[in-house]
Amino acid sequence: MIRVENLVKKYGDIVALNSLNCRFEEEKITVILGGSGSGKSTLLRQLTGLERPDSGSVYFDGMDLTAANKRRLYEKRRKMGMLFQGSALFNYLNIFENIAFPLREHTKIAENVIKTIVTMKLEMVGLRGTENLMPSQLSGGMMKRVGLARAIVMDPKIIFYDEPTSGLDPISTGVIDKLIKDLNTKLKITSVVVSHDIESCFRIADKIIILFYGDIIAEGTVDEIRNSEDLRVKQFINGEPEG
Questions:
Q1: What does the pLDDT look like over 119-177, one tens digit per residue?
Q2: Please, how many CA atoms are within 13 Å of residue 224, restricted to the half-sphere of its CB?
Q3: Exposed (0-12), middle (13-18) or buried (19+): which is 42, by Cβ within 10 Å?
Q4: Among positive and negative, which fits the CA dihedral 142, 76, 203, 215?
C-alpha cells in the first residue's frame, strides 16, 4: 500500500528522518513505535502528504506523493482517513454534523444518503443514537470513537492513527484497540498506527517499526520485537530508565 524509499527530512541541523526505507502492507496493521523525538510524527506527516521531505520518495497507491502536484495529491488523500490524537472534532457541531462534514465537503451525495452513511458509521463504532450530542457531552473514549467514525466515513483505503489511545483509561484503550482490529478486518483496509503505548501496540500489530532518532532500529512481528537483542529496543519496550 505504501512504500518509503530513502526518505530524508531535516529541520535545520536536526535530522528527523535519516534515509528511511520501509513498507506498509495492504490490509495489515503496522505500528510505528518510538520515544519522543524519534521521528514518528515527522514520518506520519510524510506518509499523509502533509509535508514534503528533503529527499526520497513515498509511494501510495502507485504514485509518488513527494512529486505530485496539489490536485493529484488531494485526490490521493481522499483515499486516506485520519484519527487525530485529540480527535479534532468541531466543538460547535453536533456528532452527526462532525461525521457528515467530509461528505458535504468532498461529495454531492443527497442528504438522505448522508444520514444513512453517518448512522452506519456510528453503528460500526458502537455509538448509534449519539447523533444529536455535542462533543463536550462525550467522554474521551467516545470522542475517539466519533473521530474514528469520521475517519472511515469516506470509505478510505488506509487509515492513519496518531496516538489513538493517548489519555484513555485501560478499558477505553481496550475498546479502541478492538475497533482498530475489527475495522481493519471488516473493511479490508490498511492501518498505520503511531504510538508509544507498548501493550496496546502488541495487541493490535501485524508489524512493528521502531524509530530511534530518525533511524529504523527494529522491524518485524510482535514476537520478533519482543525477542530483539538490540539493547535500545529492550530498553524501550521494557520501559527501563537506563540502557
A1: 999 999 999 999 999 999 999 899 999 999 999 999 999 999 999 988 888 999 999 99
A2: 11
A3: buried
A4: negative
